[in-house]
Task: inverse folding
């Protein structure tokens, strides 16, 4: 199986190093999930779409390509996206509105898919679940610690399903890595690195503005929400991630993906204890107040987690999960495990400081005691598996819609999403405070270390 390209199902069933079989029965099988949805979909799951911008239009498109899914209506504060929603749904009569509350009042709508700016996440989620609607909300879950706490409380109070949109937790590659780590292949976990980099204006959120964007085509006052009001600015509307008042910057856009994937693979569901950030605005000096280079060292228990993001240099998305028995490298297209023996494979060079007779006796005894163990390490081979995709949007949406229909738990609920978002908030707070920060569980606040 080394150096092979495999299907989803084959990837989940792949054998690993030294002939050890890793069972895939506990992992999500997207093909089986889609078949289950189709088989049980006598009545389609009916959803409403809130936010039809760059991410929302993609989510809506993917959702409508799934079996047994129907869009009943769409809401956006920019009128041009009403036209877009009708185009995506291939329905000129699709109900569209500036007022998402109208979707929540519609008894035919079972659930909501929301892709709105970060500063609107809390209100949309709380309103949706309070109206009896399940909701899929884009990452990062929250814009602030307080928002996240309110969303968790609303989910618990209402019992509605909340799925957060960090698709790494639905990646077949991350699922395989999770299984390998849980099997003990890596030994004791030492540290994790996660890196990603971009080098273009679009990657740094310098998006083109719709040509008809104006106070007449956008409900600018409502879009601003509770943020201090300012005059209409199309750049802020389209590029809101650049400003902390509306978004969460690199942390909320990219760190959250790496953190969510790491938490899923390693088996962590808690906020970091500590975070220390070095970051700056080095490339995109366009008026933004969120950094474009962002390095954070997190502490989860005793394990250091290092996350590096860069909007000025293109680098691949890579995890390096390091253990006492080897390194597992996870990328967009597959994974590679390189085993390490963790033992001496030759007599110690320190014996060079022994007198000759003593050194010769030491070397002779070392070979007698260790050669058999060293020989065994020579049979261990690297494991390389490749898969056709990584960012599994459709399986993540499919998991949500299946949960709406069956009431089974989702793969990324509101508590997991809150913990992942807290890491982002701690990373940003460390940057703005110029200090390491810690999470205080007693007060549910971020404090200086």
Result:
């Amino acid at each position: 199986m080394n150096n092979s390209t495999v299907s989803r199902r084959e990837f989940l069933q792949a054998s690993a190093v030294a002939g050890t079989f890793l069972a895939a029965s506990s992992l999500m099988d997207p093909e089986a999930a889609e078949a289950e949805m189709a088989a049980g979909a006598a009545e389609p799951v009916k959803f409403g779409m809130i936010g039809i911008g760059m991410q929302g239009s993609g989510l809506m498109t993917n959702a409508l390509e799934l079996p047994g899914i129907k869009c009943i209506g769409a809401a956006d504060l920019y009128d041009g996206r009403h036209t877009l929603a009708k185009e995506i749904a291939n329905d000129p009569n699709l109900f569209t509105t500036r007022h998402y509350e109208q979707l929540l009042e519609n008894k035919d709508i079972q659930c909501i898919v929301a892709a709105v700016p970060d500063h609107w996440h809390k209100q949309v989620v709380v309103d949706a679940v309070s109206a009896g609607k399940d909701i899929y909300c884009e990452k990062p879950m929250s814009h602030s610690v307080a928002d996240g706490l309110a969303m968790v409380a609303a989910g618990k109070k209402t019992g509605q399903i909340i799925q957060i949109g960090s698709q790494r937790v639905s990646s077949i590659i991350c699922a395989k890595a999770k299984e390998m780590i849980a099997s003990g292949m890596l030994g004791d976990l030492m540290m994790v690195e996660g890196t990603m980099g971009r080098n273009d204006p679009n990657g740094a959120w310098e998006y083109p503005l719709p040509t008809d964007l104006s106070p007449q085509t956008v409900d600018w006052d409502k879009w601003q929400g509770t943020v201090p009001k300012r005059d209409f600015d199309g750049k802020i509307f389209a590029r809101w991630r650049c400003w902390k008042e509306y978004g969460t910057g690199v942390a909320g856009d990219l760190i959250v993906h790496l953190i969510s994937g790491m938490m899923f693979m390693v088996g962590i569901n808690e906020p970091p204890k500590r975070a220390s950030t070095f970051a700056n605005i080095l490339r995109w000096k366009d008026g933004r107040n969120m950094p474009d280079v962002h390095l954070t060292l997190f502490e989860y228990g005793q394990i250091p987690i290092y996350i590096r993001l860069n909007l000025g240099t293109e680098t691949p998305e890579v995890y390096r999960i390091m253990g006492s028995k080897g390194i597992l490298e996870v990328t967009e297209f597959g994974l590679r495990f390189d085993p390490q023996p963790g033992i001496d494979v030759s007599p110690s060079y320190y014996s060079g400081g022994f007198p000759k007779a003593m050194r010769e006796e030491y070397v002779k005894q070392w070979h007698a005691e260790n050669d058999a163990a060293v020989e065994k390490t020579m049979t261990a081979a690297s494991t390389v598996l490749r898969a056709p995709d990584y960012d599994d949007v459709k399986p993540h949406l499919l998991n949500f819609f299946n949960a709406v229909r069956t009431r089974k738990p989702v793969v990324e609920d509101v508590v997991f999403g809150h913990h992942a978002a807290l890491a982002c908030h701690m990373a940003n707070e460390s940057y703005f405070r110029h200090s390491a920060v810690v999470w205080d569980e007693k007060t549910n606040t971020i404090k200086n270390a």
Notes: Residues 1-6, 15-28 have pLDDT under 50 and may be disordered.
